[in-house]
DNA sequence: ATGGTAGTAAAACTA
């Protein structure tokens, strides 16, 4: 972190193997120091690390067969790399990486989606946010530079979905999911995109593949977030959702979200 | 209210 400018991004790749070419191209075009990736969908021995390293990025990852999987790509070599929740319950290692880049602590999460509100995975999702808050309490301070980034599977506010009334029973916009996410944020996080775009509607990071022409019709969700403790919020000069990248060939259903900091 | 597509992985399962 020797530059004055530091860029961190988050991206749900929906298969790192399928999306690798455009991830590499995007990194070359966007001067990003750290990229947090979710839904890599590969086991560790199949992770395409070499191509990423050839581009000058270090990479740490933890995956499983078919589903979930997380990775962090960084120009500077990370330290203190830990996978998963560590409270004795299901560690969910393919959903959480935490590490340090110099003085900056980073936690990358792929929060459980929850399937349906009446499914046991929805209760698991709500509990996951509580467990995550405890992890922050245990390992970090609100006064230290800390970033929490990832696919949170929660659109926090009505402005973050295209149809708040119709979607209130969806697992990503249910009041209980929003409350659980908020409780974890309340530990000491600022939503860095909203910080810079307080009233801007229709800024979405996810468009359902199953909805025809969802992007053109504006039928999106803002569920991918970069949050920071106040030391990072103070350093954050801008944040944006890269909708241009969403127009790439074979796009993921999610889009890169970027935050920029001055040091 | 349901189903739509993409990806994994080789028939359903997840999102």
**Cα radius of gyration in angstroms:** 17 Å
Distance between the termini: 8 Å
Which whole number gives the mean pLDDT? 97
> What gross morphology would you assign?
globular
Number of domains: 1
CATH superfamily: Endonuclease/exonuclease/phosphatase
Number of helices: 7
Topology:
Elements: E1 5-12, H1 16-30, E2 34-38, H2 49-54, E3 58-62, E4 70-74, E5 79-83, E6 96-101, E7 104-110, H3 120-139, E8 146-151, H4 175-185, E9 190-191, H5 192-196, E10 206-207, H6 214-217, E11 220-221, E12 224-228, H7 230-235, E13 236-241, E14 257-262
Parallel strand pairs: 1-2, 7-8
Antiparallel strand pairs: 1-14, 2-4, 3-4, 5-6, 6-7, 8-12, 9-12, 10-11, 13-14
The chain binds one DNA strand of 15 nucleotides through loops.
Overview features:
alpha+beta, six-stranded mixed beta sheet, Deoxyribonuclease I, Chain A, DNA-binding
Care to describe what's here?
The chain is an alpha+beta fold. The chain has one domain (5-262): Endonuclease/exonuclease/phosphatase (Deoxyribonuclease I, Chain A, 4-Layer Sandwich), CATH 3.60.10. It has seven helices and 14 strands. A six-stranded mixed sheet has the order 3-4-2-1-14-13. The protein has a six-stranded mixed sheet with strand order 5-6-7-8-12-9. Helix 3 (120-139) links the parallel strand 7 (104-110) and strand 8. Helix 3 runs parallel beside helix 4 (175-185). The longest helix has 20 residues, at 120-139. The chain is globular and about 45 Å long. The mean pLDDT is 97. The protein binds one DNA strand of 15 nucleotides through loops.
């Amino acid at each position: 972190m020797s530059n004055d400018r530091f860029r961190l991004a988050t991206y749900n790749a929906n298969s790192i193997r399928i999306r690798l070419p455009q991830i590499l191209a995007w990194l070359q075009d966007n001067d990003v120091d750290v990229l947090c990736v979710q839904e890599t969908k590969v086991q560790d021995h199949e992770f395409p690390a070499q191509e990423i390293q050839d581009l000058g990025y270090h990479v740490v990852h933890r995956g499983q067969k078919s589903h979930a999987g997380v990775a962090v790509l960084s120009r500077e070599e990370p330290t203190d790399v830990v996978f998963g929740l560590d409270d004795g319950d299901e560690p969910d290692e393919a959903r959480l990486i935490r590490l340090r880049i110099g003085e900056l602590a980073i936690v990358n999460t792929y929060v459980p989606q929850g399937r349906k509100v009446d499914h046991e995975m929805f209760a698991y999702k709500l509990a996951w946010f509580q467990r995550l808050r405890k992890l922050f309490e245990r390992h970090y301070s609100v006064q230290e530079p800390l970033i929490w980034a990832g696919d949170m599977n929660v659109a926090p506010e009505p402005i973050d979905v295209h149809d708040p009334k119709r979607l209130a029973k969806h697992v990503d916009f249910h009041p209980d999911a929003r409350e659980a996410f908020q409780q974890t944020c309340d530990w000491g996080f600022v939503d860095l995109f909203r910080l810079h775009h307080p009233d801007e509607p229709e800024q979405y990071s996810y468009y359902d593949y199953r909805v025809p022409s969802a992007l053109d019709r504006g039928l999106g969700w803002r569920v991918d977030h970069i949050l920071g403790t106040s030391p990072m919020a103070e350093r954050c000069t801008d944040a944006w959702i890269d909708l241009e990248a969403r127009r790439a060939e074979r796009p993921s259903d999610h889009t890169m979200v970027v935050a920029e900091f001055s040091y």
